[in-house]
Design goal:
By secondary structure, the protein is mostly helical. Helix content is 47%, strand content 4%. It has four helices and two strands; from the N terminus they run ββαααα. It has a two-stranded antiparallel ribbon. A hairpin with a 5-residue loop joins strand 1 and strand 2. The radius of gyration is 22 Å and the shape is extended. The two termini are 34 Å apart. 0% of the residues are buried.
């Protein structure tokens, strides 16, 4: 399965061919039966898991953070010249920390 990345960074999800299924979808995103009844979305609800809520919270916490351009440039240079060292122990510790945050 291929996923195409659009300019806004969000993947385009595969679409079912038109004519498949009993209800067709119009330009507004409602199916023919929903448009006819006028009750589209009356009982629709979204409920996020605790993991999704934790990820949203983490994203909000970093939205206002400034980028350390000096550090980014140092990383770019070390990657370019092959001197960047990977610390597997540090990566494992961070992964375990993230896992424990998501479980909370």
């Amino acid at each position: 399965m291929n996923t195409t990345i659009s300019n806004n960074g969000l993947p385009k999800l595969p679409q079912a061919p038109s004519g498949q299924g009993s209800a067709t979808q119009n330009a507004t995103g409602t199916t023919g039966s929903e448009a006819a009844s006028g009750t589209a979305g009356a009982d629709d609800r979204v409920q996020l898991t605790d993991s999704a809520k934790a990820m949203q919270e983490a994203a909000r916490a970093h939205n206002g953070a400034e980028v350390d351009t000096k550090k980014v440039e140092q990383l770019r240079q070390s990657l370019a010249n092959g001197t960047y060292k990977v610390d597997p122990s540090r990566i494992a510790d961070r992964m375990l920390s993230l896992e424990s945050q998501l479980k909370s």
